[in-house]
Amino acid sequence: FYAHARRLFTCKGWLSPGWVKAAHSLLQGCPFSTILLGALMACWVRHVKERVPAICIGVFVDDRSMWATGPRQHHTIREALEASKPFDDKFKCQLNVDKTQVLGNTAKARENLREIGLGQKEPTNKGKLLGLMHTFHERTLEVKLDPKAYGRCKQRLKLIKYVASAISVRRLHVRTLALSQVLWAGAIAQLTVKELKQLRAPVQEALLR
């Protein structure tokens, strides 16, 4: 595929005069790009775990999560970040402080995490991970859908009647474009009974009017 592919490049409103055969990089959306990134992240996990065995790590494509437990948890996280730096420097990876979340399940844990000094991020007990809202309590974890997803669902239900007249097409849109926004997490995070009741009228309007 890449041996025969040709591309057009744009920059600041300018377009390349002709099709170009690129010698570097992968196309966005190409399955091989996620495979390559997954391989790189697997090497990163192994690199950090070998140096800081106590750290726990989770990776989803290019999103990294680190966590630790016990009285030395903040020391463990600091050591893991320091162990990660040489690897990141070699592969030109940078920590995006604006997207970084620092979470702790107790006031003491959050106080200790401040010492790590991840930019201006203030440790909290609430964060967003993979589209779900997580609230950490001392002994429990509460997981909910992002309220924005519920809003998108209601907005799409209102618009469906304007883009399709056939009931069969509307049903398809309701399932795939609207309800998918709030049902994708399955049993991990579900709508409340109140929210489900509030969706009844928009669903009926999308299908019947």
Provide a descriptive summary of the structure in words:
The chain contains six helices and seven strands, in the order ββαββααβββααα. The strands form three sheets. Strands 5-6-7 form a three-stranded antiparallel beta sheet. Strands 1-2 form a two-stranded antiparallel sheet. The chain has a two-stranded antiparallel ribbon with strand order 3-4. A hairpin with a 4-residue loop joins strand 6 and strand 7. It has 209 residues and is of the alpha+beta class. Helix 4 packs antiparallel against helix 5. The chain is 46% helix and 13% strand.
Task: Write a brief structural summary.
This protein is of the alpha+beta class and 209 residues long. It is built from 6 helices and 7 strands, in the order E-E-H-E-E-H-H-E-E-E-H-H-H.
Q: What descriptors fit this protein?
A:
46% helix; 13% strand; 3-stranded antiparallel sheet; 209 residues; 6 helices; alpha+beta; flat
List the helices and strands and how they pair.
Blueprint: E1 10-11, E2 14-15, H1 31-51, E3 56-60, E4 63-67, H2 73-90, H3 107-114, E5 126-129, E6 132-136, E7 141-145, H4 147-163, H5 167-183, H6 193-208
Antiparallel strand pairs: 1-2, 3-4, 5-6, 6-7
Helix pairs in contact: 1-2, 4-5, 4-6, 5-6
Span of the ends, CA to CA: 47 Å
Rg: 23 Å
The biggest sheet amounts to:
3 strands, antiparallel
Q: What does the average pLDDT come to?
A: 90
Percentage of β-strand residues: 5-15%
| H and E string | EEHEEHHEEEHHH
Shape: flat
The secondary structure category is alpha+beta
